[in-house]
Amino acid sequence: PDPADQPTRPELPVDVTTSPPAQPAELNTAGLYAAADGLIWMALHRAGEKLRRTPACPRARRAEANQISASALHTVLPVDEAYVDQWGLLADAFDRADEIAARYGTDPQCLRDSLSVYCRELLAAGVEHEFRHVPGALSVCVKEPAHA
User: Fold this and answer.
1) Which range scores top for mean pLDDT: 17-26, 62-71, 130-139?
2) How many CB atoms lie within 10 A of CB 49?
3) What pTM value is reported for the model?
4) Average pLDDT value for residue range 26-33
5) CA contacts within 13 A on the Cβ side of 114
6) Integer Cα distance of 42 and 21 in angstroms
7) How many CB atoms within 10 Å of residue 8?
8) What share of the chain in percent tops pLDDT 70?
9) How many CB atoms lie within 10 A of CB 55?
């Protein structure tokens, strides 16, 4: 076949390097907080979906529970902390924590533990998540840059 007859591959409009770009620490921290916020919302959503199928949500309240966002259901149906594990509300909730930790240069176990503790506290207290609480929830995992 004639090479002129072969289709050409379009150039991708992205940098396809395999190493992440160097970023100032504050950008890494902001990115980590944003990514953690997404993990928290997903964990609460999954927990809420599971909560709908537990004794905390009796049949008489299921129609009401279905009208509430899964990520906020724990604010209406608070859960005793002991049931978080028994009902598996946070099981596999932070599967992407290792990837996020590697991307933003923090310890993966610290990130998983911090997210788990924070979400457990929200579930048990019946409190809705707010982004402004993420820095405090991750404070033990974030190494602030030294100021000269």
Assistant:
1) 130-139
2) 13
3) 0.79
4) 83
5) 24
6) 27
7) 6
8) 78
9) 8
Confidence of residue 147 (pLDDT cuts 50, 70, 90): low
Write down how long the chain is: 148
Rounded-to-integer distance, Cα 12 and Cα 16, Å: 8
Q: How far is the C-alpha of 138 from the C-alpha of 9, rounded, in Å?
A: 44
Q: How many CB atoms are closer than 10 A to CB 72?
A: 15
The answer to whether 49 touches 62, Cβ cutoff 8 Å, is: no
Q: 56 near 64, Cβ under 8 Å?
A: no
Provide the residue type at 103 as one letter: R
d(CA 25, CA 109): 20
Which element (helix H / strand E) includes 139?
none
Answer left, alpha or beta for residue 126, where phi above 0 means left and psi between -120 and 50 means alpha: left
Containing 111, the helix (H) or strand (E) segment is: helix 108-125
DSSP 17: -
